[in-house]
Amino acid sequence: MNILVINAGSSSLKYQLFQMEEGNILAKGRVERIGMETAILTHEPTGKAEVHEVREILEHTTAIRKVLELLVHPEHGVLASTSEIDAVGHRVVHGGESFKSSVLVNDEVKKEIKRLFDLAPLHNPAHMLGISAVEANMPGVPQAVVFDTAFHQSMPAHAYLYPVPMALYRKHKVRRYGFHGTSHNYVSERAAAFLGRPLEQLKLVTCHIGNGASCAAIMGGKSVDTSMGMTPLEGLMMGTRSGDLDPAIVPYAMGKEDLTLGEISSMLNKHSGLQAISGISSDMREIVEALEAGDKNAALAFEMYEYRLRKYIGAYVAAMNGVDAIVFTAGVGENSELLRQTVCERLTFLGVEFDEEANRKGRGLERRISKQGSKVEVLVIPTNEEWVIARDTFGLIQSQNIRLELSKIDFSHGNRNSVQ
Ligand code: AMP
C-alpha cells in the first residue's frame, strides 16, 4: 500500500510518499511560496535526480496537481499512475477536545476541523486547504487526519486546566492542549523498544527541541503533562517564541509601548526567544557558533534556553514521582551536542551519568548518551512524524477494509444457528 503524507501550511506544502509494507520512502518534497508567481517546487524521488522548479502556483489545488504530475513523471516519477496512491494522511495541528486519535476524513470530521479554526487560526485553515486540494485532484481516495494535540488528550484535568474562571473553559474551551503529540508518541515508543522494556512500565520525559520546542511527561505510554498549552506559545523558550512569562507583562507592555493585540502576539511568537536575547539568530547552530566566539548575548541566550528546559525536565520528574529515561529529539535535540551535554551534566542529582563520548557519536541514529548503569537513561531518538502519519493512515484504512469485508459476510445463518 502506498500512502501520501501531506503537511499543508498557509503558503507551503510538504509531502512524503511511503510504500508501507517495506517501510520505504518513494519520494518527498515541498512546495513553498504558494500564492506567488515564483513558487518553489522541490521534488526528491528516491534514487533519482532531484527536481527544483520556480513557477506560478497560486493555490493548494494546483500545488497538489503539480506534485502528482511529478510522482508519475516518466523521468522523475516513482509511480506508473496516481491510482497507485491508496490513501492520503494529513497532519492537522489542532484537534481540540473532539479528536483523541487519528480518524478518516468525512463530512463530520471536516466540519469539526473548521469549528476548531478559532483555536489554530494559522494552521487548521491551511490543513483544510490541503484536504480540499486532495479531494479535487484525487476524488474517492480515502484521507486520514493525524492531530498534533491528540496524544495529549490523556492529560488529567489537573494538568490541562488553567486556574482561571471555569466559564472560560466551559464557554470557550480555554485549556491546555499540548502539541508535537505525534513526535512525543513516536519517540516514547521507540525509546521503549530501544531499552527493551514495556512502554506500559516506563516513566519518560521526552524533549522535542526544534524550532518549536516542548517537553512531555509520559507515564505508561500516556501523556500526563506537556509544556505547550492552549497554543504552542507556552512552555519552553524557543527559537522566536518566548515560552512561559508572567501574563501581566502583556497588558503592561501593550500600555507602555502602545502595542495592538496583533503586535504583542507577533512580538511573543516571532520576535522573542533565542532571537530576542542573542540579537543574532533563532537558529541554535548560530547561537553556539557565536558563544564559542565569545559573544556574551549568545551565551546568555543559550544559558536561559538550557535553564528553562532543565527546569521543565525536573518538574516532570516530580510530576511522575520518578523517571526511567530522558529522550532528546527534533532539530536541536538530535543535533546540539552542547545543549544535551549542558543539560545532562546538571542533572547528576537525578542519577544521570552522562557519556561524553557517546554524545559525540552516531548522529542520525537512535542511541544512548548516558553511561552503562546510569540510574536514569538518556537517549537521542530521531523523530519521524511523517512515518507516524503514514502508519496511522495505514491502520485506519486496514480496519476500514476489515469492516467492509465483515459487512459483506452474511451472519444471518450463524444467528439462526445460535437461536436454535
Ligand atoms: P526542527 O524544527 O525540528 O526542524 O529543528 C530546526 C532547528 O534545529 C533549527 O532552527 C536549528 O536551530 C536546529 N539545528 C539543526 N541542526 C543543528 C545543529 N547541528 N546544532 C544545533 N542546532 C541545530
Could you explain the architecture of this structure?
The strands form two sheets. Strands 5-4-3-2-1-6-8-7 form an eight-stranded mixed β-sheet, with helices on both faces. Strands 11-10-9-12-14-13 form a six-stranded mixed β-sheet, sandwiched between helices. The longest helix has 25 residues, at 296-320. Mean pLDDT is 94; it is low at 411-420. The protein has helices spanning 60-71, 107-115, 124-137, 157-160, 166-172, 181-195, 249-257, 261-270, 273-278, 284-292, 296-320, 330-335, 337-345, 356-360, 385-408, 412-419, and strands at 2-8, 13-19, 24-32, 36-45, 51-57, 87-92, 103-104, 143-147, 203-209, 213-219, 222-226, 325-329, 367-368, 377-380. Helix 1 packs across helix 3. The chain has 420 residues and is α/β, with parallel strands linked by helices. The chain has two domains: 2-147, ATPase, nucleotide binding domain (Nucleotidyltransferase, domain 5, 2-Layer Sandwich), CATH 3.30.420; 197-383, Nucleotidyltransferase, domain 5, CATH 3.30.420.40. The structure holds adenosine monophosphate (AMP). Adenosine monophosphate is lined by residues 210-211, 239, 283-285, 330-332, 335-336.
What are the SSEs and their pairings?
Blueprint: E1 2-8, E2 13-19, E3 24-32, E4 36-45, E5 51-57, H1 60-71, E6 87-92, E7 103-104, H2 107-115, H3 124-137, E8 143-147, H4 157-160, H5 166-172, H6 181-195, E9 203-209, E10 213-219, E11 222-226, H7 249-257, H8 261-270, H9 273-278, H10 284-292, H11 296-320, E12 325-329, H12 330-335, H13 337-345, H14 356-360, E13 367-368, E14 377-380, H15 385-408, H16 412-419
Parallel strand pairs: 1-6, 6-8, 9-12, 12-14
Antiparallel strand pairs: 1-2, 2-3, 3-4, 4-5, 7-8, 9-10, 10-11, 13-14
Helix pairs in contact: 1-3, 10-11
